[in-house]
Amino acid sequence: MKFTDEEIERKVIDIVAEQTMVDNKTVTISSTPEELGIDSLGLVEIVFAIEENFDVSVPFNANDPSTSDFDISSVGSVVAAVKKLIAEQHGG
Amino acid sequence: MTRRVVLTGLGVVSALGVGAARNFEALREGRCGIGPIQRINSDKLSIKIAAEALDFDGAELFTRSEIALRDRVTQMAIVAAREAVQQSGYALTDKEALRAGVVIGCSMGGIHTMDDSFREVYANDKQRVHPFTVPRNMPNAPASHLSMEFGLKGPAWTVTTACASSNHALGQAFQMIRSGMADTALAGGAESGLTFGVLKAWEGLRVMSRDGCRPFAKSRNGMVQGEGSAIFVLETLERAKARGATILGELIGFGMTADAHDVVQPSQDGAERAMAAALIDAGVTAEDVDYINAHGTATAANDKTETAAIRNVFGAHADKLAVSATKSMHGHCIGAAGSIELMATIYALGQGVVPPTINYDEPDPDCDLDYTPNEARERPMSVAISNSFAFGGLNAVLAARKWTGA
What we know:
The structure holds two protein chains of two kinds. By secondary structure, chain A is an all-alpha fold. Chain A has one domain (5-90): Non-ribosomal Peptide Synthetase Peptidyl Carrier Protein, Chain A (Orthogonal Bundle), CATH 1.10.1200.10. Chain A contains four helices and no strands. In chain A, α1 (5-20) runs antiparallel to α3 and α1 (5-20) packs across α4. The termini of chain A are close together. The mean pLDDT of chain A is 89. Chain B is of the alpha/beta class. Chain B folds into two domains: 5-242, Peroxisomal Thiolase, Chain A, domain 1, CATH 3.40.47; 251-401, Peroxisomal Thiolase, Chain A, domain 1 (3-Layer(aba) Sandwich), CATH 3.40.47. In chain B, 36% of the residues lie in helices and 20% in strands. The chains are: A mainly alpha, B alpha/beta. Chains A and B meet through α3 of A and loops of B.
């Protein structure tokens, strides 16, 4: 599966918007999980949707998200992490 | 007159071995039953460790026709119950059998059977599953097979409250005998859910550790699944004394509460109320308690919340308690967890040995009790409680007392 950087960003924003039940225009690259009111279960569902959509395996542990090798501090950091995972797991 | 309820038999199957003696030895040594998954292919799993009962092979213990009707979970319950019954010398007259019950905690039922059957029709394009799929799978199968095997004809049922199933089962059996509904019972739990489908489901929740179970340690990063069964013989003190039975310990209290809060996040309030209810039911004060077998799952949330709850219930006495999370050794046995942990609790009281919390490598400022790190410790104890706090916010706490002959 090949994705352009734009496609990845748009898809991640769509996933986050769907999960938080807001219009995808309110989700920006700088939005944080706290701002969007995403709890730990919400994060788990977002990670699942990312794995399904991009055919990657995300190293995310809900016990301690900060030590997982997957930065969820903002939508932008998630996009960057997804790009990295795709490059690693599908050779770019 | 309040009837007192004692434990006169115990049988165990777990990753620590088959038989109570093997399990006691492991608790004493601080042996870890968690390792790389061996019984199923783990290539497609991202979590590749579990506490499998590798010494338990149903094919060696049951005939082909017996296995046709008994999932691994039922096989484990039967083997544990046979040990308990034999130890207790639990011989019932026809009349006594009418007032003998069975209460078993089980969360997933015969899930090996379901996993295998569904694979055949979904993945392998088969047209049919084994004809006994339903009776093998039903979660009450372990309880039913125990009632049949030992001819127990009184109240018999299964309790399913996820990780608290067998504490609820033991607590209800205790209440039933105390109140006079039955005079004896087999009670405990059984769970064997280390199947590909179940492990995938747990992986999805993202609360599993990839590298080990480290309850209360700062480095903890999730739970590790286990399997097994512990079954006890419960009877009135009067009956046990009259027949000269060896008494392993006394059940003295049971508390249960609901968080009414969140389906997966633990609640400190619910845990506190369950512990407090068990103490009141047992007629003991917080200061009477010597040991807590903690729920201690090694998730970030549980261990911190449980610690805070213990501090609130026990006040200054919290610092004098011995606490341990034996899941570090036998894994999280879900519906059987409470039964296997009552086994550890009864061992602790009976032998005066606190089983350790192993893999404890780094203190966490949020978890500041004495968790008996890494090595068992000798300590005379009289009263203990054992905590189980389930997903769904359902809590069950058992209180037990060492049997000293009076």
